[in-house]
Amino acid sequence: MSIFKVNVDIAVYIISIIIVVLLVLPIGNTILNKIPITSHFIVFIPFCLLIITFLFVPISYKVTIDKIIINKVWGAIEINKADIIEVIPPASDDLKGNIRLFASGGLFGYFGRYKSQKLGQYSMYAGSIKVNNLLIIRMKDGTKYVISPKRKEEFLFCAKQM
Description:
Blueprint: E1 2-5, H1 10-32, H2 37-55, E2 58-63, E3 67-72, E4 76-80, E5 84-88, E6 99-105, E7 110-116, E8 120-126, E9 135-139, E10 144-147, H3 152-160
Parallel strand pairs: 8-10
Antiparallel strand pairs: 1-2, 2-3, 3-4, 5-9, 6-7, 7-8, 9-10
Helix pairs in contact: 1-2
């Protein structure tokens, strides 16, 4: 069993810090200035969405003899190696025309459902969108996962062993 951390871009850290600060400041202001309770709801709804988003952040990838596991803050996605067609680095144009269908595009990482011209729909659980940091896991049922493990070459070696 090998554990691989998520390779995270500096842009993810910057976006996340800015968004968190922009949401925390109004909350502090409403509490300190004793603003009416109705204003609290307006401020706390985005804060709750922020917390919910954080629960889906990928934190590591685990490769065992028969599975690849994507560990998130809350829960995990288990991928049986027997169901995998291939684990490969993406071509430079695989993510071209990439759009978010239901996903986070930089806040705490890149995760959720995406669609690109070449790959079609796929699930991304990554901390980077730089093509040289990514791997694509193609499944027999057509499902695709895009991940960004540190030590990518070692991950590839472990993923291909059964």
